[in-house]
Write a sequence for this structure.
C-alpha cells in the first residue's frame, strides 16, 4: 500500500470527524465520521462555509484552536464537541484541518454522575437533619425541663425554702441556661464557618496567660473533685493568632474533658513553643473513645457509643477541627477506652 493510500485510509476511517477547509473557510473535504456526526452526505459539504458546522457562539477558524464548542447538525440539533483546529501551509496555500470529537456521551455520563452525587448528598443531608432533630430535641428538652422544675419549686415553696435550697435550684437553672447557650454558640459557629463569615483576625498575645485564664474559668465549671492543671514549656510565650478562635477551641476541648472524666478526675493542659511549631494539649483520664469509632470522631453530629448518657450533640469537635484548620493549624488525638484521651492543637512557627 502506498503512503498516500495509507493516509487516505486512516483519514476515512478515523473515529473523530475531520474537516479540511481552505483559506476562505470553505470546506474542501470531510471524512465519513464527520458526515455521520453532522448528518451530511460527503458531497453536500463541499464548498460550504465551515461555520455551518458550528453554533453562532462558537469560535471561528484560526491558525490554532483547541476547546469545547457547540456543534450544529444539519437538522438544527446542537451537541457538545471538542474542536481542534490547526493551520497548514501546503504549496503556498493556506488550509485548515479541523478535528471534531463528539462529547455527547461523555457529557451524559458526567451529568448522570452529578445527579448521583447530588442525590447522595441530599440523602446524607436528610440523614443528618433527622439525626440533628433527634439530638437537639433531646438535648434542649433536658435542660429546659430542669429549668422549669426548679423554677416551679421556687415559685411554689419560696416562703418555705431555706436560702441554701433556693441557691441550689438557682444554680441548676444557671447551669442549664449555660448549657443551652453553649449549644446555641456551637450552631452559630457552624453557620459562620459554612457561610464563610468566620475569618481569622490575628494578634500577638501571651499564650501562657490566655491558657491560665481559660483554666481558671473552666475550673469553675468542673465537677466536684475535678482538678484542671496547666504547665507551659519554653522561654517564649508570645504567639500570633486569632485569640478568640483559639479560646473557643480550648474551652471546647476542656469542656469535653470535664464531661467525660470522673468526679475525681485530673485534667491537664500543656503548651510548648519550639522553633519547629507550637502546641497545646488537653489530657484527660476519662472514658476514652472506642477504637472502632475513632475514625468518625470529627464528623458532624457524631457521638461515640459510650457517651449516650452524657449531654452533647456532636458538634464541638467538628467545629474545633474546622476552626483549627482555618487558623492553618491541625488537630490530632490519642485515646484508649476507659483510660483517657489527649487532644493536641499544632500550629506552624509562622504563628509565633
Amino acid at each position: 500500500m502506498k503512503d498516500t493510500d495509507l493516509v487516505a485510509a486512516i483519514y476515512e476511517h478515523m473515529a473523530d470527524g475531520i474537516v479540511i477547509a481552505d483559506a476562505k473557510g470553505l470546506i474542501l473535504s470531510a471524512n465519513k465520521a464527520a458526515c455521520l456526526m453532522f448528518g451530511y452526505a460527503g458531497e453536500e459539504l463541499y464548498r460550504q462555509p465551515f461555520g455551518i458546522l458550528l453554533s453562532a457562539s462558537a469560535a471561528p477558524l484560526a491558525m490554532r484552536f483547541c476547546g469545547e464548542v457547540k456543534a450544529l447538525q444539519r437538522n438544527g440539533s446542537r451537541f457538545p464537541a471538542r474542536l481542534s483546529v490547526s493551520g497548514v501551509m501546503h504549496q503556498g496555500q493556506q488550509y485548515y484541518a479541523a478535528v471534531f470529537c463528539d462529547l455527547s456521551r461523555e457529557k451524559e455520563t458526567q451529568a448522570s454522575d452529578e445527579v448521583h452525587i447530588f442525590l447522595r448528598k441530599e440523602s446524607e443531608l436528610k440523614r443528618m437533619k433527622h439525626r440533628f432533630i433527634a439530638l437537639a430535641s433531646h438535648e434542649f428538652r433536658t435542660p429546659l425541663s430542669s429549668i422549669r422544675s426548679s423554677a416551679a419549686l421556687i415559685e411554689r415553696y419560696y416562703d418555705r425554702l431555706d436560702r441554701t435550697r433556693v441557691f441550689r435550684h438557682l444554680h441548676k437553672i444557671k447551669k442549664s441556661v449555660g448549657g443551652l447557650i453553649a449549644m446555641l454558640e456551637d450552631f452559630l459557629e457552624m453557620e459562620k464557618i459554612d457561610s464563610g463569615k468566620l475569618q481569622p483576625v490575628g494578634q500577638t498575645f501571651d499564650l501562657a496567660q490566655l491558657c491560665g485564664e481559660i483554666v481558671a474559668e473552666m475550673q469553675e465549671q468542673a465537677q466536684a473533685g475535678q482538678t484542671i492543671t496547666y504547665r507551659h514549656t519554653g522561654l517564649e510565650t508570645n504567639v500570633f493568632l486569632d485569640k478568640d478562635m483559639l479560646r473557643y477551641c480550648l474551652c471546647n476541648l476542656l469542656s469535653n474533658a470535664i464531661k467525660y472524666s470522673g468526679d475525681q478526675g485530673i485534667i491537664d493542659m500543656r503548651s510548648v513553643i519550639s522553633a519547629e511549631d507550637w502546641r497545646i494539649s488537653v489530657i484527660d483520664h476519662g472514658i476514652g473513645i472506642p477504637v472502632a469509632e475513632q475514625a468518625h470522631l470529627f464528623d458532624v453530629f457524631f457521638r461515640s457509643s459510650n457517651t449516650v448518657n452524657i449531654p452533647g450533640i456532636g458538634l464541638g469537635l467538628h467545629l474545633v477541627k474546622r476552626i483549627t484548620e482555618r487558623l492553618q493549624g491541625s488537630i490530632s488525638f490519642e485515646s484508649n477506652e476507659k483510660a483517657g484521651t489527649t487532644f493536641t492543637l499544632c500550629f506552624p512557627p509562622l504563628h509565633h
